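Re-running the complex after MR caught last week's input typo. The corrected sequence lines follow. Everything else is unchanged.
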Amino acid sequence: MARPVQYNTNDKVKLVDLPEGYAGEGFYATSFDKVVGLARKNSLWPLPFATSCCGIEFMATMGSNYDLARFGSERMGFTPRQCDMLLVAGTISKKLGPVLRQVYLQMAEPRWVIAIGACASSGGIFDSYSVLQGIDQVIPVDVYVPGCPPRPEGIIDGILKLQELVGNESLRRRTSEQYKALMQSYGIQ
Amino acid sequence: MSLTNEHIRQRLTEKFGEALAFEEPHNMLTVTAPADHNLKVLQFLYDDEQLRFRFLTDLTGVHYPERSGEELGVVYHLHNLTDNVRLRLKVFVPVEKPDVFTATKLFPGANWMERETYDFFGINFVGHPDLRRILNADEMDYFPMRKEYTLEDPQRTDKDDEMFGR
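Corrected-run output:
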């Protein structure tokens, strides 16, 4: 009996391409970096830190119309201990700065940060005594998404850009001198 | 008989004499009192059986840098809920010594409003149980709503000019 809707038939499941490697009869060999990168980039757990309208756009991104789950970001964590990707969406006041930093510190390595929207990236229109002029004043940022607020397509594009970074990240990056210097410049560790 | 502005004015003049000044912008009676009289006037407005101003709608500050000797003001908005009459009470203090008696004993709701007024205007509410900053970061060392600052500070370093320019 034909079903009106087809679930998970093989031609509808999208599989990621195999990384570059050497394949033969019954085996396949590639570098560890690539396998880890592949696994990490397709199972990023987002931690939303939403304070204003960009947060609403992020909710739309997670919803069924735009469906971030297609890219492996299935489950939002709401606990920094389990998440890999901090999404800062909205205006961060100077009083909130230490809180955001604390959330970042509670995340386990490897961790990535996306600044969604003008306010998180640069303070936006709030050129004011009370607003942090960009979250990169307190934590390192990997990807900036412009817009006020950005459309869900923009946020998805930012996450795809981040996936590219994650997939190509060397396993030695987080122990490198440059990375330590970067963390040092933010006073972390 | 409804409570008229003239009647309130008359009652206050009987009690306090010439110490108070009156205005009526947009038909709302506005009383300006000497700073050390603020509690006495509030208490009288609260207790008097005819006036009954027993609800504090709002309490805020204002800064007039050009008025020397009375730069900072505290404005109380009072409401008589029985007769639905509103009244505004203002007191002014010099910026060098901005001491005003706290209204928290009379209106417990004034607590956070006075903290906010302290936070933004630096008015020292004498007798307040917990006069700390409420909205701004604790380590802030200035009062941001005072008209003492240029619109844009050329010395700012927290705006990354290289990337976001002005």
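None of the earlier attempt is carried over here. Chain B has a mean pLDDT of 89. Chain B has four helices and seven strands.
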